């Protein structure tokens, strides 16, 4: 420690105390601030800890190194090595009156004055203190003092007295060390070996030496430059680290000839290397002028015994603060905790985290392992729905039977949570498509029906060049506009857009009414206007302004609207065309765009992206000529496809184009659920067989399986097979007669329905009731149930002795379960079986097969059999 | 909002990997204490350790589940240079009564001459296949030709990567349009700036794996790699844990345009790169739909990443490794999606977590 650069030490036993030493010693107390405010005068160390200064000791000038006494008592005894080689025992004023009082102030003086480089307390013989000194001619450089030595020299050499000028209590001087080692050498670092209390490892001038105090004449040594900061791994007593310049060497004392490992060289010289005391194989290193502590996680280092293995070392770095770090200290007991001090004595307390490994479970909970601990983190259900991930959304939607309402198709968007305007548009589109397909089929069974599902793009294409425009009078205005004569296709398009209802009536009235009812005043007004009914539009706006939720500004808009004039250069026109851009509502904006537009150019309406696609398309169908319309639809379709916007399904329908669109929707959102259900709504077979569609369907089924939504998966499969009969799985199990080998399935189909479910299936089987217990082919009896010993095919009686309450629950839960009780079941392993109901109740209490002497654990063989479907668990 | 809960793991040393089965009802952990533990989730949602056994004679790096279609099967890999396949059996003993299950070793794969660093089962549609990678730079692909006999595995492919391998990831896509594909990451830390991620693709004609791509921009050691589950996307997403979190998209160039038979060409884009961990990133993991990525880094935090509708990836949550909330307020990290981009400075995220660690 050169006066400017502080060092830091944790107390070995009082784990909430540490000392910072530079020119003086300052003792701090660490407190947690989790549940309390920061106290006045304390220093913040981290988010939840702070330090209070307890005492300062400036008795010992010229400090070079400090070591904390390792015993419990006295608590705050420190040995300080000074620049003149003296070692002074000092205390931080906690217990002056203890029996160790006489230790404090004791000085240990070497023969010749030179810098004291290092101090080390013996971990076992707690009174032994080793001091490493610089070289002085042929003098010894490693001195081991016994601090309890009562020995005071008879004659204090004159030299010493001079050196310790100012020191009055000469009686506390000790000049005779217990051992003197390392003659004619310098000692830079020291550590006691935990293997034996008499072994001392020293980093000497150009070698590492192990001194054995039992025989001081001998030492083991190895020549190396890496002699600084020797330190023993507390978890692996043969592993030692030392450093030189930027390089750390790891030694194995059993094979001391050369380092077993050297770590990657650092560009700057190292200042401190320390093993973590709370975790195996973690070495922290610090270089000069750096704000990074580099950590080496030694999972495996080579050992001299056993085979040659390559080291597994994971290098990490932590940056506890922005300033350079002067020194650091591991906390003796808190796991991986460390405190660092900067040159200007700011301190920071932090924990080095272990590498975290993590995994997502399929039901969006995250599990991670940090060190030896496991943490699970689940997404809370009551989360704001907008924040939810698509995985959670799909799971909740599957539970609410999303996509399965095939009658009121539009309702599916409500099942989806009624939150996504695109889904709303999609399901309304699909609803109209279904409705008009049925309509078409009724009118003219044959070709047209499929056209509806092909989308407006195809519908418009099919009528190319058949439409002429005509001038239409505005109601209540003496204005005329070019409006296309609506042919059958355009009417269909308008119907799909939702503007007009079923039938040949081209009246938008009902649509307007429904919009008004939902409070979409602006939209209703715009639609009214596009149908050349400005009076109705104004009326709707007024209505909106006066309603509770409405906006009073709508009156102003209505006022502006009523001032409409057809004159080309009027002030009204000029102002409206500029001011309309400031309107926030897109529908209000397009109304003025429409009124101020030149005849035949409606770009202001057609390309206003905030207006729903269905309204823009309907508008285009009304006002654009065939070629214009075609071009517009084409352009819009491509735009929608690019963006994966589900509103575009209106244009593409469930065609290849639709699959393209859906592909970019899936790319964007990952929502294969909507994609699957949408495509299963009415796609022609060739579209359904598209690889991408099949892939979505497969993946969605897989997803349901992973969530254990097996019932939902089955429902989905049924739904799918309605449109794609080829996807219907073949029968997986046949029951064949033991004697003739023929399938008994024909008669078997009636077997389960003998009970109450009987009549509803219309099977008049009562005369054959007794016959089904035998094979329909050879009339031999069917096998017996292992439990009731009655031939299969008989209705099951409620299980005797079984838990009756359970049975009742089963029956009341669903009548179908009662029929299932009659089914054949058998174990694939031991071939024993019987009535499903009997078997289930048997295995509720037993692990082994009910047939005597059969030890087969039938039920446990199928481990997935233990998995209950998740739907029953879900709310 | 995310709430973390501590589960007493009772491993005697560091846990290196956590893995869920297909349904998320079972979990396996492996540790430096050379053991694997299997955990089952009870109806109440608590995890119970139902098996714990010594699997290897060295640290167990990774553990992974096979699809339940193949039974209850685990694979583990270790520093002891082997990988092993384990199967749960219905024991003759009354293990089940004590709530314990019994796992037997079906095979030991001993081909590697160095530490086996990762093991992964191939996607289900490829059959029962297993890939391992090792520190000597070789990826090995094994197959069990008979799924009923887990003791026979044949080494089908050996791919040399030239660099010490640290992690592998199968492309999970089961689309017929996508050939089997495996990405390999290397943690080689030598100063040469070689690309650390290679992607190999199976070629139907040559019946071999050939290099399809090398991510030239990734030159720092890679610690983990993960293809996102692909539920129907037309492209692949690959997350990489290196000195930062990176997300790449690989868009196959349509087959018709490329010459048939050759490897698929990809348009590769880096769509996100986050250094919020401010240090090495150790693991990345995708959720079931491949829409949320979780990463863990040396700052001791777990971060969640998610793309918005504009395909901009953002941090949507930060969790401390010890389960304590970041800055005492985890809700903030979640509701404010922009928080991820201006993470509190490093000091905050490193500090102050000591009080949360009860065990030492």
UniProtKB/TrEMBL annotation, chain A:
One of its GO terms (cellular component) is lysosomal membrane. Residues 394-623 form the MIOS-like alpha-solenoid domain. Pfam families: MIOS_a-sol, MIOS_WD40, zinc_ribbon_16. It comes from Mustela putorius furo. Residues 737-859 form the GATOR2 complex protein MIO zinc-ribbon like domain. As a component of the GATOR2 complex, functions as an activator of the amino acid-sensing branch of the mTORC1 signaling pathway. The GATOR2 complex indirectly activates mTORC1 through the inhibition of the GATOR1 subcomplex. GATOR2 probably acts as an E3 ubiquitin-protein ligase toward GATOR1. In the presence of abundant amino acids, the GATOR2 complex mediates ubiquitination of the NPRL2 core component of the GATOR1 complex, leading to GATOR1 inactivation. In the absence of amino acids, GATOR2 is inhibited, activating the GATOR1 complex. One of its GO terms (biological process) is positive regulation of TORC1 signaling. The gene is MIOS. GO terms for molecular function: zinc ion binding. It is found in: Lysosome membrane. The keyword Transit peptide does not apply. Belongs to the WD repeat mio family. Keywords: Lysosome, Membrane, Metal-binding, Repeat, WD repeat, Zinc, Zinc-finger. This is GATOR2 complex protein MIOS. Its main location: membrane. Coiled coil: none annotated. Component of the GATOR2 subcomplex, composed of MIOS, SEC13, SEH1L, WDR24 and WDR59. The GATOR2 complex interacts with CASTOR1 and CASTOR2; the interaction is negatively regulated by arginine. CASTOR1 and CASTOR2 convey leucine availability via direct interaction with MIOS. The GATOR2 complex interacts with SESN1, SESN2 and SESN3; the interaction is negatively regulated by amino acids.
Automatic annotation (TrEMBL), chain B:
GO terms for molecular function: structural molecule activity. Its main location: nucleus. GO terms for cellular component: kinetochore; lysosomal membrane; nuclear pore outer ring; Seh1-associated complex. Keywords: Cell cycle, Cell division, Centromere, Chromosome partition, Kinetochore, Lysosome, Mitosis, mRNA transport, Nuclear pore complex, Nucleus, Protein transport, Repeat, Translocation, Transport, WD repeat. The keyword Nucleotide-binding does not apply. InterPro entries: Sec13/Seh1_fam (IPR037363), WD40/YVTN_repeat-like_dom_sf (IPR015943), WD40_PAC1 (IPR020472), WD40_repeat_dom_sf (IPR036322), WD40_rpt (IPR001680). Signal peptide: none annotated. GO terms for biological process: cell division; cellular response to amino acid starvation; chromosome segregation; positive regulation of TORC1 signaling; protein transport. Residues 324-360 are annotated as: Disordered. It comes from the Eukaryota. The keyword Lipoprotein does not apply. It is found in: Chromosome, Centromere, Kinetochore; Lysosome membrane; Nucleus, Nuclear pore complex. Component of the Nup107-160 subcomplex of the nuclear pore complex (NPC). The Nup107-160 subcomplex includes NUP160, NUP133, NUP107, NUP98, NUP85, NUP43, NUP37, SEH1 and SEC13. The SEH1 subunit appears to be only weakly associated with the Nup107-160 subcomplex. Component of the GATOR2 subcomplex, composed of MIOS, SEC13, SEH1L, WDR24 and WDR59. The GATOR2 complex interacts with CASTOR1 and CASTOR2; the interaction is negatively regulated by arginine. The GATOR2 complex interacts with SESN1, SESN2 and SESN3; the interaction is negatively regulated by amino acids. Belongs to the WD repeat SEC13 family. As a component of the GATOR2 complex, functions as an activator of the amino acid-sensing branch of the mTORC1 signaling pathway. The GATOR2 complex indirectly activates mTORC1 through the inhibition of the GATOR1 subcomplex. GATOR2 probably acts as an E3 ubiquitin-protein ligase toward GATOR1. In the presence of abundant amino acids, the GATOR2 complex mediates ubiquitination of the NPRL2 core component of the GATOR1 complex, leading to GATOR1 inactivation. In the absence of amino acids, GATOR2 is inhibited, activating the GATOR1 complex. Component of the Nup107-160 subcomplex of the nuclear pore complex (NPC). The Nup107-160 subcomplex is required for the assembly of a functional NPC. The Nup107-160 subcomplex is also required for normal kinetochore microtubule attachment, mitotic progression and chromosome segregation. This subunit plays a role in recruitment of the Nup107-160 subcomplex to the kinetochore. PANTHER family: NUCLEAR PORE COMPLEX PROTEIN SEC13 / SEH1 FAMILY MEMBER (PTHR11024), NUCLEOPORIN SEH1 (PTHR11024:SF3). This is Nucleoporin SEH1. It comes from Mustela putorius furo. The gene is SEH1L.
């Amino acid at each position: 420690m050169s006066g400017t650069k502080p060092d830091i030490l944790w107390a070995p036993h009082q784990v909430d105390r540490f000392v910072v030493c530079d020119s003086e010693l300052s003792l701090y107390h660490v407190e947690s601030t989790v549940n309390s405010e920061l106290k006045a005068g304390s220093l913040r160390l981290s988010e939840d800890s702070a330090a209070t200064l307890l005492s300062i000791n400036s008795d010992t000038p010229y400090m070079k190194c400090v070591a904390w006494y390792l015993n419990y008592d006295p608590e705050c005894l420190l040995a300080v090595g000074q620049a003149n080689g003296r070692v002074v025992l000092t205390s931080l004023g906690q217990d002056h009156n203890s029996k160790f009082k006489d230790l404090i102030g004791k000085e240990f003086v070497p023969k010749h004055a030179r810098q004291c480089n290092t101090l080390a307390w013996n971990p076992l013989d707690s009174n032994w203190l080793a001091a490493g000194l610089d070289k002085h001619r042929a003098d010894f450089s490693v001195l081991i003092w016994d601090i309890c030595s009562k020995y005071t020299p008879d004659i204090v050499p004159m030299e010493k007295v001079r050196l310790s000028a100012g020191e009055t209590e000469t009686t506390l001087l000790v000049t005779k060390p217990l051992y003197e080692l390392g003659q004619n050498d310098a000692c830079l670092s020291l550590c006691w070996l935990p293997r034996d209390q008499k072994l001392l490892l020293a980093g000497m001038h150009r070698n590492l030496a192990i001194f054995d105090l039992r025989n001081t004449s001998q030492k083991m040594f190895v020549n190396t430059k890496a002699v600084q900061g020797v330190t023993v791994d507390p978890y692996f007593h043969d592993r030692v680290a030392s450093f030189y310049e930027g390089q750390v060497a790891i030694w194995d004392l059993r094979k001391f000839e050369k380092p077993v490992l050297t770590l990657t060289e650092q560009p700057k010289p190292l200042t401190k290397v320390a093993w973590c005391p709370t975790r195996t194989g973690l070495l922290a290193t610090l270089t000069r002028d750096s704000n990074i502590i580099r950590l080496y996680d030694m999972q495996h280092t080579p050992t001299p015994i056993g085979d040659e293995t390559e080291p597994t070392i994971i290098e990490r770095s932590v940056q506890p603060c922005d300033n350079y770090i002067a020194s650091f200290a591991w906390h003796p007991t808190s796991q991986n905790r460390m405190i660092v001090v900067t040159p200007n004595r700011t301190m920071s307390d932090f924990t080095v985290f272990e590498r975290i490994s993590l995994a997502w479970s399929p039901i969006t909970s995250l599990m991670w392992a940090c060190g030896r601990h496991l943490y699970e983190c689940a997404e809370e259900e009551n989360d704001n729905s907008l924040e939810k991930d698509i995985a959670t959304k799909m799971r909740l939607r599957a539970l609410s039977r999303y996509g399965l309402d095939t009658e009121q198709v539009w309702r599916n968007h409500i099942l989806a949570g009624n939150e996504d305007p695109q889904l709303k548009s999609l399901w309304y589109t699909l609803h109209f498509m279904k409705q008009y397909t049925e309509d078409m089929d009724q009118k003219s069974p044959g070709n047209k029906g499929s056209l509806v599902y092909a989308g407006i793009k195809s519908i418009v294409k099919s009528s190319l060049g058949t439409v002429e425009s005509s001038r239409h009078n505005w109601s209540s205005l003496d204005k005329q506009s070019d409006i296309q004569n609506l042919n059958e296709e355009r009417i269909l398009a308008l119907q799909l857009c939702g503007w007009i209802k079923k039938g040949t009536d081209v009246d938008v009235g009902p649509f307007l009414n429904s919009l008004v009812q939902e409070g979409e005043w602006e939209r209703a007004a715009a639609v009214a206007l596009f149908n050349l009914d400005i009076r109705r539009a104004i009326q709707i706006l007024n209505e909106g302004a006066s309603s509770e939720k409405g906006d009073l500004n709508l009156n102003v808009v209505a006022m502006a609207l009523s001032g409409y004039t057809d004159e080309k250069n009027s002030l009204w026109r000029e102002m409206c065309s500029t001011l309309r851009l400031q309107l926030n509502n897109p529908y209000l904006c397009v109304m003025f765009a429409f009124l101020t537009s030149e005849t035949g150019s409606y770009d202001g309406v057609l390309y206003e992206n905030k207006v729903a696609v269905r309204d823009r398309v309907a508008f285009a169908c009304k006002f654009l000529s065939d070629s214009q319309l075609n071009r517009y639809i084409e352009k819009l379709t491509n735009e929608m496809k690019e963006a994966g916007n589900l509103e575009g399904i209106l244009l593409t329908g469930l065609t290849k184009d639709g699959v393209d669109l859906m592909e970019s929707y899936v790319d964007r959102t990952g929502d294969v659920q909507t994609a699957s259900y949408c495509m299963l709504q009415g796609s022609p077979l060739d579209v359904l067989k598209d690889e991408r569609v099949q892939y979505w369907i497969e993946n969605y089924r897989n997803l349901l399986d992973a969530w254990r939504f097996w019932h939902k998966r089955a429902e989905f499969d049924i739904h799918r097979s309605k449109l794609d009969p080829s996807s219907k799985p073949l029968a997986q199990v046949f029951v064949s007669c033991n004697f003739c080998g023929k399938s008994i399935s024909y008669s078997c189909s009636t077997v389960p329905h003998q009970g109450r479910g009987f009549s509803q299936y219309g099977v008049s089987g009562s005369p054959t009731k007794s016959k089904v217990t035998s094979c329909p082919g050879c009339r031999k009896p069917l096998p017996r149930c292992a439990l009731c010993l009655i031939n299969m095919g008989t209705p099951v009686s409620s299980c005797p002795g079984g838990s009756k309450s359970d049975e009742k629950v089963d029956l009341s839960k669903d009548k179908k379960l009662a029929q299932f009780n009659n089914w054949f079941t058998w174990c694939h392993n031991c071939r024993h079986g019987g009535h499903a109901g009997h078997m289930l109740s048997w295995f509720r209490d037993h692990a082994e097969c009910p047939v005597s002497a059969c030890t087969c654990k039938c039920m446990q063989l199928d481990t997935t059999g233990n998995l209950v479907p998740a739907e029953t668990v879900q709310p | 909002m995310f709430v973390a809960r501590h589960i007493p793991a009772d491993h005697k040393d560091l846990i290196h990997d956590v893995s869920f089965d297909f349904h998320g009802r079972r979990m396996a952990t492996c540790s430096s204490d050379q053991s694997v533990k299997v955990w089952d989730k009870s109806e109440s949602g608590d995890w119970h350790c139902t098996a714990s056994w010594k699997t290897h004679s060295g640290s167990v790096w990774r553990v992974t589940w096979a699809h339940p279609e193949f039974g209850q099967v685990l694979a583990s890999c270790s520093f002891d240079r082997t990988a092993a396949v384990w199967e749960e059996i219905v024991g003759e003993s009354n293990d089940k009564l004590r709530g314990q299950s019994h796992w037997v070793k079906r095979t030991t794969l001993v081909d590697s001459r160095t530490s086996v660093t990762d093991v992964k089962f191939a996607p289900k549609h490829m059959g029962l296949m297993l890939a391992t990678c090792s520190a000597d730079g070789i990826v090995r692909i094994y197959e069990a030709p008979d799924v009923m006999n887990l003791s026979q595995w044949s080494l089908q492919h050996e791919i040399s990567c030239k660099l010490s391998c640290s992690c592998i990831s199968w492309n999970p896509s089961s689309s017929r349009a996508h050939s089997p594909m495996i990405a390999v990451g290397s943690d080689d830390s030598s100063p040469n700036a070689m690309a650390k991620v290679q992607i190999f693709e199976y070629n139907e004609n040559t019946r071999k794996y050939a290099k399809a791509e090398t991510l030239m921009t990734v030159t720092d050691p890679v610690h983990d790699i993960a293809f996102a589950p692909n539920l129907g996307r037309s492209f692949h997403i690959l997350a990489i844990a290196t000195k930062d979190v990176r997300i790449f998209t690989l868009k196959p160039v349509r087959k018709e345009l490329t010459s048939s038979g050759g490897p698929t060409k990809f348009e590769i884009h880096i769509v996100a790169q986050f250094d919020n961990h401010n240090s090495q990133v150790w693991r990345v993991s995708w959720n079931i739909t491949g829409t949320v990525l979780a990463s863990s880094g040396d700052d001791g935090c777990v971060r969640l990443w998610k793309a918005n509708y504009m395909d901009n990836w953002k941090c949507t949550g930060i969790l401390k490794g010890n389960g304590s909330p970041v800055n005492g307020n985890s809700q903030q990290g979640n509701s404010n999606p922009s928080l991820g981009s201006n993470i509190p400075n490093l000091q905050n995220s490193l500090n102050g977590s000591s009080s949360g660690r009860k065990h030492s």
